[in-house]
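During the no-cost extension, the postdoctoral fellow (Dr. R.K.) reprocessed legacy sequence entries with the updated structure-token encoder. One reprocessed record is reproduced below for audit purposes.
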Amino acid sequence: MAVFAVIYMIPMLYRYTQSPHPRSGIVGCVSFIVVSLSTKAENGLPSVAHIAWTRGLAFIVGVVAGVVVNWVLWPFVARHELRKALSSMMIYSSIIYRGVVAKYVYYEDGEEPGKKDIERSEMLEGRLREGFVRIRQLMVRLLYSPSLDLIEDYRL
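Re-encoded structure tokens follow.
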């Protein structure tokens, strides 16, 4: 049991503490604790039929829960993320626009934009373009996701 704990729990703890998606790590940790404690509580191994029945039921419940979460919860989370991404891109666009106007339109004599300024502007343009591409991809995914709220589909 200790060897399996080292092999399984270290990646789960890393996922929980260091990953931007800690939920999967905590679910893995809790799953291991439940399985290991149930084995310890039974003072040995249960019968083969009992193992098959409980694991099969757990598999079915896990698949059904995953499907329900992806079909019901994903559209709402994705819409929330899309709204945050759009507002962030609007802020970034206004900051970049302000910088471009200040650098290229209203510059002082002798402080004309140089090659370094042009390279920086092209880099910022590329990042902004990549952000809009990601938002477009998220919007396409939202169009084909099921939703419980029909009005929400038209307010993208």
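The CA atoms of residues 82 and 135 lie 7 Å apart. The chain has a mean pLDDT of 78. The remaining legacy entries will be reprocessed before the final report is submitted.
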